[in-house]
Each structure stands twice: as C-alpha cells, then as structure tokens.
Amino acid sequence: MNHLISLFRRETVFCVSALLALLSMLAVPPDAAYLAYPDYRTLALLFCLMIIVAGFRSLGVFELLGRELLQRTDNLRSLSAVLVLMCFFCSMVITNDVTLLTFVPFTLMVFRMIHQEERALLVVVLQTIAANLGSMATPIGNPQNIYLFSVANFTMGEFAWAVLPYTAVSLVLLLAALLFLPRTPVGKYLAESKGDGHVSLRAILPFLVLLLLSLLVVFRVVPYGPALVCVAAVIWVVNRKLFGSVDYYLLLTFLCFFVFIGNLKRIPALDSLLQNLVQGHELWAGILSCQVISNVPAAILLAGFTENYQTLLTAVNLGGLGTLIASLASLISFKFFTSEYPARKGAFLGSFTVWNVGFLLILAVEAMLL
Fold first, then answer.
1. Cα 87–Cα 90–Cα 96 angle in degrees, nearest 5
2. What residues have CB less than 8 Å from 192, skipping those under 6 apart?
3. Dihedral (C-alpha) 67, 72, 75, 77: value to the nearest 10 degrees?
4. Contacts with 146 (C-beta within 8 Å, 6 or more apart), sequence order
C-alpha cells in the first residue's frame, strides 16, 4: 500500500489516466479495435526526443552553454535576462520540462554564489513561464505540440499561425517583467566562477545526428519506425544507461489517455455530448481544462472531440499558464525552489499565481482578438 501511495504522489497524472482507462474498459471491453487507439508516431517521437536530450544533458552541454553566456553579464538584470531567455529559447528544442530540470537548479546555485537569494524567486517564476511559453513555438517543444502536430497533420504555416503570434508577445512580456529586477553589479562574483569544462565534438556528434533524424520524422520526411530502431541502436552502443533517463510514465500516461478517449468515442451518447461541449468553444475549453488536468492530458482529451486543431493548439499552450498544475513542468520549478527554501512555499505559490494569471489574461485577450 505504501508503494501505491508513493507512486500516486510521484506520478499523479499517470495514476489518474490509468484509472480512467480501466473504468472505460468496463463500458467497452478490450477488443481488436484497441490497437487503433494509440498514435504510435507520437509515442515513438517522445521516446526518441527524451533519450536524445538525456544524452546532451549527460555531456553537460546545457550547463556549459549557461556558464559561457553568464560570463557576458555584469549586473543582476542582465544575468536574470540570460537565465530566463535561455529557458525561453532552449525549451523550443529540448522541451519545457527538461529545460527547467536543467536550468532551475543552475539558477539557484548562481544566485547563492552572487549572494542574491532573495531575488531568486522571481527569476525562477519567470523561467517557468518562459519555458512553458517558449516551448510552444516548435512542434517538438512540448508533448502536446508533438501530439497535435502529428494527429492534425499541420503544415508549418498552420502551426506557425497557431503559436508564433503568442510566442512573440510572450517574449515582449518577459523582457518587460525583467525590468522589475535591479541593475545590481554582480560581475566580480561571476568572474570568479568561470568554468573550464568543454564538450568534444566526437562525443556530441551522435546525438546531433539523432536529433536531426528525429526532426525529419517530425516533418514526415522519414517514417517513425526505422528512426526509432536507429535511435535505440545508436544509444545502446554510445551510452545504454540513457535508457533509464526516459520518462516512461509520460509514455504510459499518453497510452492510457489514448485508451480512455478511444473508448469514450465508442459510447455514442458521451461522444455526442463531448463534441457539443468542445466544438466552437475550443479556446476556453482548452484553457480551462488545463487548469484542472494540465495541458498534455487536456490536448489528448479534447483532440478526440474537435477538428479545430489550430485553436486547440493555441488553447492548450496558453493554458499551461495559470495554476501550478496547468503545466506539470511547473511542478519541477516548485519542487526545486521549495526544497532549497522550504519556508518560502507560500511566497512562491503567490508570486507564481500572480505572474501566470497576468500573462494568461494578456495572451487570452490576444487570442480572442485574433
């Protein structure tokens, strides 16, 4: 029982998705049609991207990038801008959750080093917003984009129209928010911290090639099956320990939601009800559902009951703002910050909510105008 409780606390979304899948099986007993439920292309891409990014992290690529950029700052505001904008742009390639896993601990370390711990809260909150909003700019920036880009068969123009206007405004808002930080000199502390690490091209090259291969799958140039086999084979040779770095619970969560939604669509009354609730209301259905079940499950759920995928894509990306669980990546920042400063949980939640709701309201108004 203790193991189950511990699993529920660690992987709440997976446990809920598994329960929903099991309950739906009572109404629709398993049969051959279940095999058509999953989007296997999305699952393969998620696996490939997670393990490739884990390879980059194992080489210290992102920490090295961060240290190099920090050497070009001399005051608190410019330092914070580098840390926040790294999250914004890196999340476009390495996903929002991996970005926060990499840079939030790095940020807390840097702010201890420069004796500005009291300013770390705002920077971590802005990093979280930056990662969640920057990740919406590319088809591989977050799991919901990977899924919707696959099932909707978007062209790049359609995808860009759904996300880039909001990405641009998000960048402006982040730059404006950084003005709340003072220009306190910190150059002397950063100069003392200069690292001497490096990453050899030979070590990084296999991961660069695999990333390119995965991008070709995203844009439907290469089929996902051979690419998946190739990625697995290369990782087995280069560093098989990376297989342990994959978030298999995320993959299982997707699988459970595929089963749940597939079964709902085979119950005529529920299918009709959900289509009536979602169709024509994709923007607010997406934003509001994210606040309760987070944006990845919301995307998978709502995509089963509408064909207006562009609006839904916008909705679930903007919906990652708001509550702490609207994007599960935000919990990463919360856990890191509160483990470092346990007495400041309330302060983090208050600041996080105010800034997230502010960003969400502005971007939601933009969405209604467009």
1. 65
2. none
3. -80
4. 42, 45, 46, 49, 139, 140, 218
Amino acid (one-letter) located at 15? C
| Three-state SS letters, the chain | CHHHHHHHHHCHHHHHHHHHHHHHHHHCCCCHHHHHCCCHHHHHHHHHHHHHHHHHHHCCHHHHHHHHHHCCCCEHHHHHHHHHHHHHHHHHHHCHHHHHHHHHHHHHHHHHHCCCHHHHHHHHHHHHHHHHHHHHHCCCCCHHHHHHHHHHCCCHHHHHHHHHHHHHHHHHHHHHHHHHCCCCECHHHHHHCCCCCCCCHHHHHHHHHHHHHHHHHHCCCCCHHHHHHHHHHHHHHHHHHHHHHCCHHHHHHHHHHHHHHHHHCCCHHHHHHHHHHHCCCHHHHHHHHHHHHCHHHHHHHHHCCCCCHHHHHHHHHHCCCCCCCCCCHHHHHHHHHHHHCHHHHHHHHHHHHHHHHHHHHHHHHHHHHC
Give the pLDDT confidence of 233-264 residue by residue, as tens digits. Answer: 999 999 999 999 888 888 888 888 888 888 88
Reference 141, options 110, 186, 192, 100; nearest CA is: 100
Place 268 in a pLDDT band, splitting at 50, 70 and 90: confident
Q: Tokens in use for 182? A: 């003072």
φ/ψ of 176, rounded to 5, equals -65, -40
* pTM of the shown model: 0.83
CA distance 150 to 144: 10
Q: What does the pLDDT read at residue 266?
A: 87
Tell me the sheet residues that pair with 185: 75
